[in-house]
Specification:
By secondary structure, the protein is α/β, with parallel strands linked by helices. The chain contains 10 helices and 10 strands.
Length: about 260
Amino acid sequence: MIQMEDLYKSFGGVEVLKGVSLQVEKGEILALIGGSGHGKTVILKHVAGLMKPDRGRVYVNGKDVYNLRGGELEDLRSHLGFLFQSGALFSSSNVFDNVAFPLRETTHLGERQLRERVLNVLEQVGLKGAEDKYPAQISGGMIKRTALARSLVKNPEIMLFDEPTTGLDPVIAHTILDLIKSIHKDLGFTGIIVSHELSRVFQIVQKVAMLHDGVILFVGTPEKIMASRDPVVRQFVTEALRMPSSAMRSFDQEEKRHGEK
């Protein structure tokens, strides 16, 4: 469903992706892990067609993303949901209107059908009765649920999750990941999830890819990465499983600074 071939991407002369090749089979969720600043979000943006590689190719459902133009690109994106790290809600719109936005912009649904679809997906993510609240009136967990509902409202074939649990306490973080697992079981979408919550994420994905220094260092099942003897893989996984996610992000930033030196 998703295939990346020899992706390269630089910013301001700094090479972030140095020949990334990776594929995600239809119906599976892949966990994309690695240190902060190593390019995981950059990969998601390439899959969504939000960023163009310096060289290399991205194929989604057999179509070369960077050869698509106009309506073809919009059609591809209409089958894709993107859960941004911050939630990216419109602060001046309530929960209902935030979730309804993609339907109003890209479909011709009548108001009655639109309302039914939005209320159904809000119930699916546990936000029944919260449709009239504004982002400033709800918790971080509810913001993530609203953003998840918005990304799911068009029943996408592909879902991209960029740190869906950032800023949440462990209980709420696990609830969000359990919700992703449950919805995947119902919808069968193909997904990539970037997360530091490895202990829980490894329980909901079928495959793991580790990005390190601009290349994919490891691809395999959660069981295989746990048993890896590669010293870089072992150190990262051991630290990630031992530390809380907030501490892990600090570890990653320190690792990045050390590498820059």
